[in-house]
Amino acid sequence: MQYNDALKSIFNELKDWEDLGSMADYIPELAKVNPNKFGIYLSCINGESFTYGDTQEKFSLQSVAKVFSLSLAYSIEGARLWDRVGVEPSGNSFNSLWQLEYENGIPRNPFINSGALVVCDVLCSILDNPKADFLQFVRKIAGNPNLNFNPAVAKSEQETGHRNHALVDFMKSYGNIENPTEKVLDFYFNLCSLEMTCEALAKSFLIFANGGKTVEDNLQLLSSVRIKRVNAIMQTCGFYDEAGEFAFRVGLPGKSGVGGGIAAIHPGHYAVAVWSPRLNDKGNSSKGMKALEMLTTKLELSIF
Amino acid sequence: MQYNDALKSIFNELKDWEDLGSMADYIPELAKVNPNKFGIYLSCINGESFTYGDTQEKFSLQSVAKVFSLSLAYSIEGARLWDRVGVEPSGNSFNSLWQLEYENGIPRNPFINSGALVVCDVLCSILDNPKADFLQFVRKIAGNPNLNFNPAVAKSEQETGHRNHALVDFMKSYGNIENPTEKVLDFYFNLCSLEMTCEALAKSFLIFANGGKTVEDNLQLLSSVRIKRVNAIMQTCGFYDEAGEFAFRVGLPGKSGVGGGIAAIHPGHYAVAVWSPRLNDKGNSSKGMKALEMLTTKLELSIF
Amino acid sequence: MQYNDALKSIFNELKDWEDLGSMADYIPELAKVNPNKFGIYLSCINGESFTYGDTQEKFSLQSVAKVFSLSLAYSIEGARLWDRVGVEPSGNSFNSLWQLEYENGIPRNPFINSGALVVCDVLCSILDNPKADFLQFVRKIAGNPNLNFNPAVAKSEQETGHRNHALVDFMKSYGNIENPTEKVLDFYFNLCSLEMTCEALAKSFLIFANGGKTVEDNLQLLSSVRIKRVNAIMQTCGFYDEAGEFAFRVGLPGKSGVGGGIAAIHPGHYAVAVWSPRLNDKGNSSKGMKALEMLTTKLELSIF
Amino acid sequence: MQYNDALKSIFNELKDWEDLGSMADYIPELAKVNPNKFGIYLSCINGESFTYGDTQEKFSLQSVAKVFSLSLAYSIEGARLWDRVGVEPSGNSFNSLWQLEYENGIPRNPFINSGALVVCDVLCSILDNPKADFLQFVRKIAGNPNLNFNPAVAKSEQETGHRNHALVDFMKSYGNIENPTEKVLDFYFNLCSLEMTCEALAKSFLIFANGGKTVEDNLQLLSSVRIKRVNAIMQTCGFYDEAGEFAFRVGLPGKSGVGGGIAAIHPGHYAVAVWSPRLNDKGNSSKGMKALEMLTTKLELSIF
């Protein structure tokens, strides 16, 4: 089946699908979003794109944005980054302190909260203006000068972020955080508050499907080897404790966020972004997971 | 770089590489193997094949064989299989009872010991002659009537298999084992004792690179959808607590065993088998991991 | 308040107390017991004794009997015993494999299942006829030739004892079990099936209140130093994951069993046995706990 | 043996005993103490007292002081306190976040760090001037107006207290901390910095041996029932992951601190304080443990 036919049929089947998921309510600002929003946008590396539903409305990227912070830190630090954070699936819920204690303050991977916080600490150490420099990086790879943080969401997370506070202090006790706790958290909460439409998200992920080159200008912004490695981490660690399920059912590298967004890529072919705010009990968009499973089934094409 | 050039250069670089890994010594029969053996065999779906080193000598597949038992059980049971075993990475060492207790006797995936034992139990329930029927299945997908268990190895494992005994009894206490403990273990230890040469192993994995069809006769022995799912499980769970590292460094679905063998596939392209008995501290062949990392680097081609 | 007044008032208050606990139903034979049985028997080292309720009916000691097996093993092995089992509270449910794995097959204490199984293994190694010799020992310290195992209960446990099977095999994988699994389990299930009336149980525990001497003949059957240490272990480990609660509310060394019995002692004063089959969610007799709490409150006397 | 003879012989045997323990070095200010200090002071409820060694030099109470904060909080809050902290041994190292996560932010007991922090939070909520009011309480039960915090030690702990910071924030994420993190920690670090001589410490613990009454004036400052319960918690939880060992070898309720002090009591008889800064691998004074074991052995008298 062709891309457009596949997306059209997915959208029609799912738009009235009864979604038993519930909103992320621990961040008050996110709980205000209309839970019935649903959009899917697919952008090919040949320039074509396909859109259905609410793809022009901004939503909060949350953990999806951790792919960008990882990419930036990795592009500057190189392999030294892996002294401070691993690349293994966590096998536990995304906030767990267990394994962090068992493994002496080295987070299992850069997508669980602790690992993303270490990446933020790394960026706080190497960037002059972490928030501004990071935003500039994202705008560049997305080819989109209008991307921004949402200060209300960042503030909302700050006020309920005791557990992330605990994670930073805990890792500091192992010597794996260099900057002041508040500075790391301020960067982290802003990172999570990054907003995009489905269209912008799909386009910003094209670089991961295209070996590190921008599609428009063919500029090599990230090295091809590192792009593959970031994709591999997305595949094994991108969906909290459901990474195996996503590989099994969808078969693409991707990353989800509690704002209900998921971005995924088929290397050499396309990037796709889907948004639906209701989450399953593992914290991933339930309709989004379903849509992407239908996509690779209908296209009869995954990386496996 | 072409396949032959890549393999040749890998073989020459690694044959004198100082390997600090050590043999699996908890199975006495395996400890007798010459630790310096090293072979690599790559078999393309177009019929070409390339061989360097000790590729005509049989070795013990051990956990690599769990890909075959999973494939057989899945082909008969279908999705019901996932009621009894998950598809998530374990995030712990391959013998761990922790998560099994935490998750009420349902193993995280079919490649950790507990999960492989559940798969054996499933096969004991549905096959008339589990060992013979299984052997026939492997011979068929491998296109090789000469494959066999190694009774000395099976017996050697039986005598030191207290922990696997414990796993079966433990899962029985949760109602997730149907057959007598001894029957399940006898099948399991025979499964692990399956022997192949690198050549036979690469050829038996071609079906996973070829969407479930045999390369010789183009017969659809396993469904294309299920092959993709088995590949996905290999990707996220195939290397004990180093699955993320293998995805990160190699970027192919694969499976390792403590006999020092690794089989991996690039869907649509090839299957490759490598054998070197010294293991790293995660239980994977250290030279084998290195060889496959060099392979995808030299070919500049992985699934990511 | 005097002993008799205290017991009388406790019995009257509690005999119609609505007990929300439930029976141990995982051992079919135990589930047949009348759940409303209730008896309490207090035996002083000066020879006096006091009895209320169902104190002449036999019940299954279950884990209470582990005090006897520990005492016998300790009296023969001495301090060497602590190389194979610890004396620390477990901080987990009584069946947990977690800490056993974390601590390399050395159970935390002799009263959790794993620790009691190690003690059984020790006795299997040093006794000619483990079951008969053990029974003789218990009869001697109890001054009661009529004590016996209950074969129907032992058999009932054997048939559902997969988890204990797993524990033995698991510890065997660490080298902490010497005898055949079936032999250790046979002894263990018989030990647990030991039956006594409240009167017999209180009298058999007098030796722990009397520094190791029998009350009738003043014979030093166990050394005074070791009696104190067994009492200390009862205090810190005698009530599964409720040992702290029992110390806090009752303030006496004691041991409970899932048959609904509890034995406790006030060193230098008395031994007391209570029986009521309904268990709280930690596996201890709920009315028994309550009765003993009222006892030390009314007597205004505990070891603290 | 009489008290004086016992102490004299213990002191002489141990003063040249080769102590392989090491100082607590994670608090810089504590690492400055002379590691060879050794003193023991025993104070009877009949007014007699016995002293050997360095009993007139102040040292840092550290966790020993948690007995006082618990006593004050319990005397004001009563049984409500147990909604926020348990009374069970932890079965893990004293800093562990594991069980805290497993049990939803309710610490296992008031002596592990997390539990002591909750008690500090309770006192911050109910006292007008937490530090001053607490100091007044300790001076009163100790009958000693000269007791004080050590600001240099408190400051030293504050600067390295990332893990305690993490614990407070983590419990705040479960709603089990009411006050600002910094306020709770400031109180906690001052509490731990409380200084006493062996003599002062033994005298301040007399009230726990005397049913809540002061020995000098016979004033009932704490209720007899609550004193027993605090004693019970000391018995089951007072020595980190060595509480069972202390009950087993010493047989008295007590509490240790990383400053090298231990206080213990024999209800109805005496309180004893010992100080020796070298710690064993569980964080308890190694010579102190040894001295108290010899004490109850020589006196042939413990609570068991």
What this model shows, in words?
4 copies of one chain form a homotetramer. The first copy, chain A, is an alpha+beta fold and 304 residues long. In chain A, 45% of the residues lie in helices and 10% in strands. Chain A contains 12 helices and 7 strands. Chain A has helices at 3-14, 66-77, 98-102, 113-126, 130-142, 151-159, 162-173, 181-193, 198-209, 224-237, 243-249, 286-299, and strands spanning 39-44, 49-53, 59-60, 195-196, 254-256, 261-266, 270-275. In chain A, strands 2-1-7-6-5 form a 5-stranded antiparallel β-sheet. Chain A has a two-stranded antiparallel sheet with strand order 3-4. In chain A, helix 1 (3-14) runs antiparallel to helix 12 and helix 7 (162-173) packs across helix 8 (181-193). Chain A is globular. The two termini of chain A are 18 Å apart.
Task: Provide a compact summary of the structure.
Four copies of one chain form a homotetramer. The first copy, chain A, has 304 residues and is of the alpha+beta class.
> Could you spell the SSE succession of chain A in H and E letters?
HEEEHHHHHHHEHHHEEEH
Determine the oligomeric state from the structure: homotetramer
Counted by DSSP, the helix tally of chain A is 12
Distance between the termini of chain A: 18 Å
**Strands in their spatial order, largest beta sheet of chain A:** 2-1-7-6-5
Structural class assignment of chain A:
alpha+beta
Tell me roughly what share of residues is in helical segments of chain A: 40-55%
Low-confidence spans of chain A: pLDDT under 50, at least 5 residues?
A: none
Considering residues with a beta carbon less than 8 A from a beta carbon on another chain, report the largest interface and each chain's count.
A-B, 37 and 37 residues
Find the count of extended strands of chain A (DSSP E, 2+ residues): 7
Overall mean confidence score, pLDDT of chain A: 94
Largest sheet of chain A: 5 strands, antiparallel
